[in-house]
Write a structure and sequence with these properties.
Elements: E1 10-15, E2 19-22, E3 31-35, E4 40-43, E5 52-57, E6 62-67, E7 71-77, E8 86-90, E9 97-102, E10 108-112, E11 115-119, E12 124-128, E13 132-139, E14 146-152, E15 156-162
């Protein structure tokens, strides 16, 4: 048995010309919108699906697909190595629990492994995970996604507050 590991790396980029932004990786999928040339995108992975890249339109925080020849790569996005989930103490439940607070005026999209969660502004939720490694991606309209991996221990509670960091130029 051979196991192939595909290293997934994310990038910022932009659409090179006006292009259909689709729900799936082919012309058979519905068009979400038309992205104008120069639209900033977050390229989720270098892995192509049917010659399409899985991307996020940063302005709207919508996830979808655009054809590979209309994608221009920019800066590589580093995974967050510092961690974002703060241990809050032991719990009585085996599975780790994360209390998440969206401390912004934007709708937060949080992907934990393969599950996607949506948080309204100022909303607080508790999510129960399986112990082990957890890949995460946090995004909101107009914000470059935050990505990383953390190890979630059994019988442990965690907290995380989503906020937006702005820099003056």
């Amino acid at each position: 048995m051979t196991v192939i590991t595909v290293y997934s790396q994310s990038y910022l980029g932009w659409a090179t010309k006006q292009v259909n932004f689709r729900q799936g990786p082919s012309t058979e999928y519905e068009v979400i919108s038309s992205l104008k040339a120069g639209t900033q995108i977050f390229i989720i992975s270098l892995v192509l699906e049917n010659d399409y890249y899985n991307i996020i339109d940063i302005a709207t925080n919508r996830e979808g697909y655009i054809y590979k020849s209309f994608v221009k790569f920019g800066q590589m996005i580093e995974k967050n190595e510092q961690g974002v989930f703060t241990p809050s103490g032991k719990t009585d439940t085996y599975n780790p629990e994360i209390e998440i607070f969206n401390n912004t005026i934007h709708t937060l999209t949080l992907k934990l492994n393969s599950e996607i969660y949506s948080f309204s502004p100022k909303e607080r939720k508790t999510i129960i995970l399986t112990p082990g490694s957890c890949d995460y991606r946090a995004s909101a309209p107009g914000v470059i996604p935050n990505i990383g991996t953390e190890y979630m221990e059994s019988n442990m509670g965690y907290t995380w507050q989503f906020y937006i960091v702005t820099k003056r130029r």
